Amino acid sequence: MPKLLTTAFSTAALTAGLLLGAPAAGAQAAAYPTSSFDVTYGNTYTRGTITWYNRQVVVSGEHKSVSATSCRGTTAFGVDSQNHDVAVNFSDHGVCGASAKFSFPVTFYQAGVGVVRICLDNGAEHPPVAYLKCARYGRP
Predict the structure, then answer these.
(1) Distance from the first to the final alpha carbon of the chain
(2) Closest alpha carbon to 88 in 98, 70, 73, 68
(3) Are 109 and 59 in contact (CB under 8 A)?
(4) Which of 1, 27, 102, 106, by CA, is between 20 and 30 Å from 81?
(5) Is-above-0.85 flag for pTM?
(6) Once rounded to an integer, what is the mean pLDDT over residues 43-71?
(7) Would you say residue 93 has pLDDT above 50?
(8) What local confidence, expressed as pLDDT, does residue 29 receive?
């Protein structure tokens, strides 16, 4: 096949493949469910949303500390149906005397996790981390 004809055929096949794989015009992906959370301890807090995926949640929000000597961070646990912690992750940085936005995933290596426990912690960069107050949130 001449080179020009081969190139034209390849381009047409690629375009057809892209169009066949594309969603229909006007179709939108279904929105993932979300839950709001608010864990307040004295004048400090962690607040935000949990976005639920199949085997992962994304915890996004803001945590606040009112004292330069009392830092705060956020930790999230995935909890299974037997009430066991099966996954954990935490905000990258605690805050001291300020507030900060955060977003982090918690990945589950099993299906069926329908509860996330969100904890306001002492913002420690190294264990042991002290959990000041926690609350449980179920998948909507």
Answers:
(1) 58
(2) 73
(3) no
(4) 102
(5) no
(6) 96
(7) yes
(8) 58
DSSP string, 78-109: EE-TTS-EEEEEE-S--EESSEEEEEEEEE-S
pLDDT at 6 over 70: no
Q: Which amino acid is at 49?
A: T
For the cut 80, the answer to whether the pLDDT of residue 80 exceeds it is yes
Alpha-carbon dihedral sign for residues 59, 103, 40, 93: positive
**What pLDDT shows up at residue 15?**
41
Tokens of 37: 């959370």
- As a whole number of angstroms, the distance between CA 38 and CA 50 comes to 11
